[in-house]
Amino acid sequence: MILHGYFRSSAAYRVRIALNLKGLQVEHRFVHLRRGEQRAHGYLGLNPQGFVPTLEVGERCLTQSLAIIEYLEERHPLPPLLPPGAEDRAWVRAIALAIACDIHPIDNLRVLQYLERTLGVDAAQRDAWYAHWIREGFTAIEAQLASRAPAKFCFGDEPTLADVCLVPQVANARRVSLDLAPFARIRAINEACLALPAFDRARPEKQEDAEQ
Ligand SMILES: N[C@@H](CCC(=O)N[C@@H](CS)C(=O)NCC(=O)O)C(=O)O
């Protein structure tokens, strides 16, 4: 398998964590998003949306981080990233989707570039936008986490898809210096995750293409 990613992409970070948790090796190829390589003709042939990640599996190109992770889950069920009960699986997916569908897309590079280049927003306003949507999303997720008994991870004592999405979003929050003090559970879960080698090795700063 070949993973096309970028060290700072939180969607690619999710896939790196899932691969590591499942003990799967891939070849890494790097798409420099700041240089616009995601819009190069060759790459659009792999991923017509012009996003990372893309996972090449033989002749097939899989796109969308959550679809890729669900594929890995189906092909390599152990260790599971979803709990056994249908309601519990829905709960875990809801946290993952709150991040992947509601928080992350409006802070994506192309959205930030549109704010700056087309709407004339300055860097401070851009970062305020970024932090605002994470703060709003994390407020809801913190309440969802608080509705369950305290646990090491989002759901129980093993990491799930929810943690796979949460940790990269916390990394993004830190990049814009969002005050995480109100989010005690999120902070504790993030620390517990990063203590695991699978999460630690997936950190942006530990990737081959990492820059300052
Ligand atoms: N929903 C997609 C989002 C992918 C995505 O937004 N990737 C970002 C990096 S985190 C990207 O490639 N952005 C390129 C751009 O905005 O031009 C997924 O989960 O895979």
- Ends: how far apart? 28 Å
Helix content: 40-55%
Largest pleated sheet:
4 strands, mixed
Number of distinct helices: 9
Q: Average pLDDT across residues?
A: 97
User: Strand order across the biggest sheet?
Assistant: 2-1-3-4
Task: Spell out the blueprint of helices and strands.
Elements: E1 2-5, H1 10-21, E2 27-30, H2 41-46, E3 54-57, E4 60-63, H3 65-75, H4 86-103, H5 109-118, H6 123-146, H7 161-175, H8 184-194, H9 197-200
Parallel strand pairs: 1-2
Antiparallel strand pairs: 1-3, 3-4
Helix pairs in contact: 1-3, 1-7, 4-6, 4-7, 7-8
Bound molecules: glutathione.
Keywords:
globular, 52% helix, 9 helices, single chain, 212 residues, four-stranded mixed β-sheet, alpha+beta, binds glutathione
Describe this structure in words.
This protein is an alpha+beta fold. The protein is 52% helix and 8% strand. A 4-stranded mixed β-sheet has the order 2-1-3-4, covered by helices on one side. α1 links the parallel β1 and β2. The protein is globular, with a radius of gyration of 17 Å. Bound molecules: glutathione (GSH). Glutathione (GSH) binds next to α1, α3 and α5.
